[in-house]
Amino acid sequence: MTPDAEIIAVGSEMLTSQRVDTNSLFITDHLNALGVEVRRKVIVGDDRALLTDAVRHALEHAGIVILTGGLGPTEDDLTRESVAEALGRTLVFRQDLCDAIEERFRRRQRKMAEINKRQAYLIDGAEVLPNPSGTAVGQWIALNEEQEDGRVVMLLPGPPGEMKPMFTDQCVPRLAQRLPAQVIRARFYRVTGMTESDLDQLIAPVYKKYTNPATTILASPGDIQVHLRARCSTAEEAERLLAEVGDPIEELLGERIFSKNGDSLEALVGALLRERGATVAVAESCTGGMVAERLTSIAGSSDYFIGGFLVYSNKMKQDALGVDAALIAEHTAVSGEVARAMAEAARVRTGATYAVSTTGEAGPESASGVPVGTVYLGLASPERTQAVRVTFPGDRLRVRLFATQGALDYLRRRLLGRA
Amino acid sequence: MTPDAEIIAVGSEMLTSQRVDTNSLFITDHLNALGVEVRRKVIVGDDRALLTDAVRHALEHAGIVILTGGLGPTEDDLTRESVAEALGRTLVFRQDLCDAIEERFRRRQRKMAEINKRQAYLIDGAEVLPNPSGTAVGQWIALNEEQEDGRVVMLLPGPPGEMKPMFTDQCVPRLAQRLPAQVIRARFYRVTGMTESDLDQLIAPVYKKYTNPATTILASPGDIQVHLRARCSTAEEAERLLAEVGDPIEELLGERIFSKNGDSLEALVGALLRERGATVAVAESCTGGMVAERLTSIAGSSDYFIGGFLVYSNKMKQDALGVDAALIAEHTAVSGEVARAMAEAARVRTGATYAVSTTGEAGPESASGVPVGTVYLGLASPERTQAVRVTFPGDRLRVRLFATQGALDYLRRRLLGRA
User: Which CATH number fits domain A183-259: 1.40.20.10, 3.30.450.20, 3.30.70.2860, 1.20.1050.10?
Assistant: First the structure.
């Protein structure tokens, strides 16, 4: 039988009106993929008695108990002590962990603070879950191994950047090993260039007929994720069901699917540029650096990303890119003409194979008179220089996110000979 | 004594990876204003045994137990039954409630479905909390009134549009009447330029002596938040305690506190530039647009942000900014000399009052030979052009986040005449 899970988010800040626990969403996604259901979530402050009580209570109901947060070095980080108390185990100082933390500080020419020693205590019997991004190691505790009790408790750090890789790299494989053989096969599409409701209207007639595979649709600006998950006793059966639902969906969505393996648009564009030995530059106005930020978030992007121009003011468009003042006066800065001129100039001035440009009104006010949400995306390549007009819904941040995604997708489609 | 509160969000959909409970944030805000702390939040699915257990458990720890959701008409709406069971009370059919629901349907020319009768059951002894926006009435249960036990349980509908008016109009006044007059006052500092453990070592001797105000410390790359919350019977007393702890903390942290009202660094820098009628440009290498993205995330930033240069490659540093190839050859691109030359050129070429630059090794590999995590931040202003060397821990993303925050903070300190 597959055990249920309970997730405990630790930290008084999670009990303020400004913060929600989002770590549990990531964890839930991965647990579900393993066939594990989350039965309860608890959010508790930095209070030893309440936290200890929460762990005890969770262990009465759940086979898998996952705690996030409270592993820092300060006095209000109480997860280690509370779990140890709830389990009736001691905390053991581990010199090797202490040495590793000290070494981490030394590498940065800094001295470890005395309080960081708190992070070198392990609950008796726990396995260390290494944390490449921070000083707080995680802990994995399998209870009563000899009695085949099967319950496990995990202590994970609170910062998502540390928790996520630890959970996927360390906890998911350990859990998969313990759980009953059940085959889960998944397909995962990332889609851009349409709204969530248009997408749903298009593909619902296909997936609605099935509860297995389960279909989940998740939207963020310019990036809709479609998950199909089949849960069967054999791989063949799961793959057959996935094909039955997934193949027609792929047909319907066509090139709007930009990734079938979870890769981000910037990773994909980077790979396409690298394959072709090509380079790219940017000329950004309304996105203010977001296109470049996405491109350079990929390790090794210096192989194909040359750089670019942030031409927020009209004067910068003229000075840095030589966009004709008369062109701006005639068409306004938010126009296809200016977007094309920006892309072309960025390509010529940097010597890049491709250049993308953005100019638009992100709001809340419109400076050009063009309606807020209107963005022109320009693209210069050896074949031709073009611009497209797009309109995006939402506030300033959403318009900028959509425009950034749109610019990267425009480049993707050009790289694939489809735009 | 003011009781603590526990909030229980009911609904299996709240345990999926797509949904978070946000009702509790609204409720928390109002409770805090009444001097009530939320000690724990629980999210539980549509499972009668678990829900009953959650209510029982909550009543052991909290004087105020608030449930949201599970008051609908369907079989999986189990809050009424579960709370009744946990309290050992019966459910009583109320003809007047049933009539009101029927009337509601009739007004819309519809017939009440049989299952809606479930919504006409009240827990014995409960007061009705009317719901002008839906068929699910809320319930207010004061326990053991005669023994002055003081504990209360509230059942509120899940849809925020129904829950919010019910809570503010019906529950807040009832709570205010029962609670001792109490106020909460808070201070909130955002700090940069030091690590969480250094900060804690510095200020722990001050705040450790106090449980009131309560101190919470929260860190993200380059941005540490310190919350102080005092809970007292009078505003004067709360302010006095806050000053007792907050004033020495402010003294110790000094200019590393960049905000006392929650404002982000980019909002603050924007306000300082605007005040001075000054403008800013950027020259970004390792941060690849992230400094500009932060600056332009603020509405109206076109008043002070001119634009800039993304000089990722050495050739771009030379072509777009005129950085001397010999300078790069002598010092490498990751050097104070190059950071200064970048900032100076960006300032001259854009005519901006200030220009900030970044050049560093974000990893995972080092191209220049300089250790990964090393970043030079340059700053040009009317007074002088300087650069500082900083080293940041963590992976590519963290180094870039730290460097971005560092660049904005360098500008902030210069704007304040402190760098």
Answer: 3.30.70.2860
